[in-house]
């Protein structure tokens, strides 16, 4: 599970082919968004240094910037840049390596930073005042309602808390289909139940949820007859818009108009009617490309830090005897709790129950992990609980982990075993490179074997080394 | 020449690994590609789910758990 939301978007972006990247980088707003939230800080520094450089940047000069101990950070930054096709490593006639910033990317970034041009990629505010203007509060409420409906659809129907008739009105057919395609829910003989991926999804913070759903959406754009590049650049544009401002739809392409409809079903944009000439981005949209939390979620799910800073305090009390009390009347929270708790009593402002072996193993079987449960309980711990460190009773935490471990005795990682190295140096060099990329999972120095969960960067590295070896 | 072998790394404790090896040997070695060390084996990617299910079955047979009662409910 990726923690940060932009990480997910990054994972999706790097898998795109070079042509798509080139096309994407035509839009200044896209380039700015990629620069702002996809790149590690060091990569930003490198890009900035090269941005106004008239000639390619020699690899030897770049090397001189770093101390030897910074090698792994440098490798990571350069690998991110290369995978996104932002820089290219080239060899000139004298067989010296040098780096070059991709032309389209450089042009667009310069345009985004200094302004100018008629690209209109940052959205065009509506010129005529909207008679039914809405304020940010309304937009927040709208976004929250739409989004919570989606979450509640997934969780509520699984635990059977929701009357399904009421739900089906609230979320559109398209959204349901999308959740199913993304494998977040399964529909078996008319009954909706949540999957392993769905759990991970629900427990993520809102921003990450939005990206997860949008990535599913992106994967299925070709089937809907939409262009992936169009969709992506529209999303990146949304990230640069201003909350509370209405934007005109007249500059949007056919695909993007079609998208608006879907996005308003998610609560990412708001339109007063289907044929309105303007649209409002909601907080879900404008935080797409920033790391700030989306939606000041008072009663929705949020990350630990977000929930502590928000005015709403935690509401869950767990006692050492595994009893759990939750001061909430939100159906969404109750249904999430009931995924891994044996709830027994419900009062107007309180539900109580117990964490049992049965309830935890049931959750584990459905794909929720003990760490997810613990982080959920910790981040929503009642202020009284927060006086102790750690917030949860250690016995309960240990027991939950043990219950999970009983059911799940093996840990699997798909990837590649690398073996048959000719020399110790060759082995060590490649292993260290894999380690610096963060793909090394297991290694056995005596056998000179190691296991990685990603191989494409390594093979690139080896190829480069072969050509360099011919010097 | 360096070889890259596609597969799934399975990490488990030594006792579980013994069971995995046992299952594998009873099924004409169609699961495990390589025995890595005491706690790791490399398994064919397509067979992981089946392998895990067989392990679950075996554990159910071998380890009879005492039924825990929630008496204080």
TrEMBL record, chain A:
Keywords: DNA damage, DNA repair, Nucleus, Transcription, Transcription regulation. Signal peptide: none annotated. InterPro entries: Tfb2_C, TFIIH_p52/Tfb2. Residues 398-458 form the Transcription factor Tfb2 C-terminal domain. One of its GO terms (biological process) is nucleotide-excision repair. Gene3D superfamilies: 3.30.70.2610. Coiled coil: none annotated. It holds the Pfam family Tfb2_C. GO terms for molecular function: ATPase activator activity; double-stranded DNA binding. GO terms for cellular component: transcription factor TFIIH core complex; transcription factor TFIIH holo complex. It is found in: Nucleus. Belongs to the TFB2 family. NCBIfam families: tfb2. Component of the general transcription and DNA repair factor IIH (TFIIH) core complex, which is involved in general and transcription-coupled nucleotide excision repair (NER) of damaged DNA and, when complexed to TFIIK, in RNA transcription by RNA polymerase II. In NER, TFIIH acts by opening DNA around the lesion to allow the excision of the damaged oligonucleotide and its replacement by a new DNA fragment. In transcription, TFIIH has an essential role in transcription initiation. This is RNA polymerase II transcription factor B subunit 2. It comes from Amniculicola lignicola CBS 123094.
UniProtKB/TrEMBL annotation, chain B:
InterPro entries: TFB5-like_sf, TFIIH_TTDA/Tfb5. GO terms for cellular component: transcription factor TFIIH core complex; transcription factor TFIIH holo complex. It comes from the Eukaryota. One of its GO terms (biological process) is transcription initiation at RNA polymerase II promoter. Its main location: nucleus. Keywords: DNA damage, DNA repair, Nucleus, Transcription, Transcription regulation. The keyword Transcription applies. Belongs to the TFB5 family. Component of the 7-subunit TFIIH core complex. In NER, TFIIH acts by opening DNA around the lesion to allow the excision of the damaged oligonucleotide and its replacement by a new DNA fragment. In transcription, TFIIH has an essential role in transcription initiation. When the pre-initiation complex (PIC) has been established, TFIIH is required for promoter opening and promoter escape. This is General transcription and DNA repair factor IIH subunit TFB5.
